Amino acid sequence: MKSALAPGIRLITSFSRDSWYRSFILFLTFLFYTAYHLSRKPISIVKSELHRNCSTVIRPADLNVTNNATWCDWAPFDQDNYQTLFGVLDNCFLVAYAIGMFFSGIFGERLPLRYYLSVGMLSSGLFTALFGLGFYWNIHSLGYYAFIQVMNGLVQTTGWPAVVACVGNWFGKGKRGFIMGVWNSHTSVGNILGSLIAGVFVSSAWGMSFIVPGIIIACTGILCFFFLTPLHSMWDLSEQESGEEEPLLQNSPHVDRTINGAISVEPQEVAEEHSEAISFCGALSIPGVMEFSLCLLFAKLVSYTFLYWLPLYISNVAHFEAKEAGDMSTLFDVGGIVGGIMAGLVSDYTGGRATTCCVMLLAAAPMLFLYNYIGQRSLGTTIGMLLVCGGLVNGPYALITTAVSADLGTHESLRGNSRALSTVTAIIDGTGSIGAALGPLLAGLISPTGWNNVFYMLISADVLACVFLSRLVYKEAQGWCGRAPRVRG
């Protein structure tokens, strides 16, 4: 009897095969992009080892030292302009990533996603490991490390359009915001794991801080090659080949059941599945792509400025030690996870992706102002303000790069052509990556004039992000008032 089954078994068997396959794809893509972020993080951890305070380091007795102040540093980062050199490495990655993202989506639409993603992760593992091998090969050339960062930035662009396309192909619009909000926590998980792994080796042999993450992402690339199924229709095909009559995905637009239970595929739908990949200009012409892309440019500018400068700000203003400031800054990411999930839930319920983003961005502006003025008065205030600011800043960023990108990549104007998803995702995230490169750069130029001016810059960016969404917000409001059909994106 079914009642005699163990509760856990009853729970497992309550899920259909469709649910299991969707969960499996969600888990795989989560794992893949966690590995991408895990391999990006070591550079921020290793910087403190490349240039250290040598007066606090015990010098080996047999070491012949010519400069007592920099004997423990790794050339060329032993110079006084080491911060500028670190900035060069950061911008080499970010600028290459921003430029490459616009081309990555085009390639992703024309190549099998499984192969494209596998090669991308294997290549990323190679270049991540090559940076660490500079330690063992005793390389002291800035050009070498800058070249590795450029190449790594380019190959890392294979990840985001591909994984969003996979998830978008498997999940409909009904709960897409919530599902992708939870799924998008892979960025924070990857950052945390990358920090922990790099921290294990950084003091003894910093090269392993890169080599181990490189091996991990390369292994996930192999996993991708053997297990990823980017389209749900591929499961249908495998079921047909095995002789089973029941369609795997009941909601698949490419499958219809005849009277005798056999599976038939409409010729017109097959043509849609194999339609030509959309052009770059064609993707730009999809309603909402330009607006959300420009909004993300300024939203990501704010998010990445916090990512690169928040620990230093906390250390300078609240006078925390470097490690304490770094630990405290992770609260911003914790708030971002909650903000991304809440943004997805609200936008699913209301159907207003643009309005959800705009409200959160408008609320973020005064919260940033308050955090700058009262956020460091006490430990409790600091924790609370970081969580709130993280949620309001990263919530719209997470929603746009996930659910909004998937919505626009499957927009009704495409008439069933699902091959636009990767290109649309690349355009939106590529434009946002320009802001990711500009934000830390502007903060570095403005910060000598005072932290207040940095926050004014961030508040202005939030307001500009809202301005670019104003037309879409007005359109959604008309839909709610019954004056126009309510359509996401």
TrEMBL record:
Catalytic activity: D-glucose 6-phosphate(in) + phosphate(out) = D-glucose 6-phosphate(out) + phosphate(in)
GO BP annotations, alphabetical order: phosphate ion transmembrane transport
Location relative to the cell: Endoplasmic reticulum membrane
TM segment ranges: 20-38, 84-103, 115-137, 143-171, 183-202, 208-228, 292-310, 330-347, 354-374, 380-400, 420-442, 454-474
Annotated InterPro entries: MFS (IPR011701), MFS_dom (IPR020846), MFS_trans_sf (IPR036259), SLC37A1_2 (IPR044740), Sugar_P_transporter (IPR000849)
Main location: endoplasmic reticulum
Any Pfam family matching the protein: MFS_1
Record-annotated Major facilitator superfamily (MFS) profile domain positions: 28-477
Record keywords, A-Z: Antiport, Endoplasmic reticulum, Glycoprotein, Membrane, Sugar transport, Transmembrane, Transmembrane helix, Transport
A Gene Ontology molecular function term of the record: glucose 6-phosphate:phosphate antiporter activity
Topology within the bilayer: Multi-pass membrane protein
GO CC terms, sorted: endoplasmic reticulum membrane
Similarity-based family: Belongs to the major facilitator superfamily. Organophosphate:Pi antiporter (OPA) (TC 2.A.1.4) family.
PANTHER family in alphabetical order: GLUCOSE-6-PHOSPHATE EXCHANGER SLC37A2, MAJOR FACILITATOR SUPERFAMILY TRANSPORTER 16, ISOFORM B
Protein's recorded name: Glucose-6-phosphate exchanger SLC37A2
Organism: Seriola dumerili
